[in-house]
Amino acid sequence: MTDLYQSQRAMRAMRKAAMQRGVIAVLDVGTSKVACLVLRIDGPDQFRASDGVGPMAGQGTFRIVGAATTRSRGVRFGEVDTMPETERAIRTAVQGAQKMAQIRVDHVIATLSGGDPRSYGLAGQIDVGGGPVTEQDVARCMAACDVPPFGEDREVLHAQPVNFALDHRSGMGDPRGHMGNTLACDMHLLTVDSKVVASLIHCLKRCDLELAGVASSSYVSAIASLVEDEQELGAACVDLGGGATGLSIFMKKHMIFADSVRMGGDNITSDIAKGLQVSLATAERLKTLHGGVVATSMDDREMIALGGEETGDWDRDQRTASRAELIGIMRPRVEEILEEVRTRLDAAGFEHLPSQQIVLTGGSSQIPGLDHLAPRILGQQVRIGRPLRVAGLPEKATGAAFASAVGLCLFAAHPQDEWWDFEIPADGYPARSLRRAVKWFKDNW
């Protein structure tokens, strides 16, 4: 854990330096697209005091000065699969955004949507002796959290304090300065497959980019799509992407659970290609222009020209299918994805939250009729979300497909406190996790 802790501190320092220079890029490496946004940080006071306990807690005002997107290549299930193809796609997106912004960027903050994320809830407690709580006490309390043995091939992506309690006064956001005897802390730990992160870092290095931070795609999508009340009272954000469906649960403005389902819009496209015997490109076009999940009596009579590649066989090139057929192929797969999401929500105990709002976002959430189908499977309180809270977005980046890219901008400018924002003494690291430390950061840094 020491290597990870120091490396994440180095990434935070690199991010702060880049933002003080006034420009940083965010990169959403997804299965269906790679999006790059260049941010210019405004104002001399880039980090003002804000809610939170760490030195990084603050608020930066920013403008998006460059944006570019390209079709993703070489990425499967949100993970780098073919390195040269992914490198080419990242270079295309970054160069397009740099050209629009007319500025060069060296540091990027990236999202990770694969890697089999797993959530852990940790608790720690220390004695503060009746005096005022200091930042060192907060650091000691976080170090006292007993980290579970999550395995040598896993790495910590997020480690955030979600609640503090001082002498049984719970629900404190910042305990510093309060008097008490016993300080307790609840933390949320999110781990991912270390090889997936290592591949992403190596791919960015091949593109001559320095990684100034990495965030879970399901986490940043929720930051962008959930309104304030939903984050406070409890809500789930389901990010329906191309290769993976991310899931995160928020409570008291903190993420308390994250998971992912290795299915997404690409599976629906593949089903259409197999069912109607057309190419993947044609299947994607049919899904986008004519797709849906709720059939009506009109759909039997609405015929769709399949078209596609000209083969020279007139009978094959002039084939048609009814929209009802298309819906009959799409609906079972969409139901399967939503059923899997429901299973993960039940396992996380989502039904015990005071508010059970579910927000669907991501490119695949735009399928017509999903707002009628999803409540039958997930529960009554379902809405389709899109990125909020960022003014001046380019027109093409205002849709639900860009939720994770826009959320990454907010993550960059309004960083939440993480374990590595605190000066935790070296002897305070959990000994069990030290023995299980993975050295990939040292190898790839």
UniProtKB/TrEMBL annotation:
It is a peripheral membrane protein. Pfam families: FtsA, SHS2_FTSA. Residues 24-225 form the SHS2 domain. CDD domains: ASKHA_NBD_FtsA. The keyword Heme does not apply. GO terms for biological process: FtsZ-dependent cytokinesis. Keywords: Cell cycle, Cell division, Cell membrane, Membrane. This is Cell division protein FtsA. The gene is ftsA.
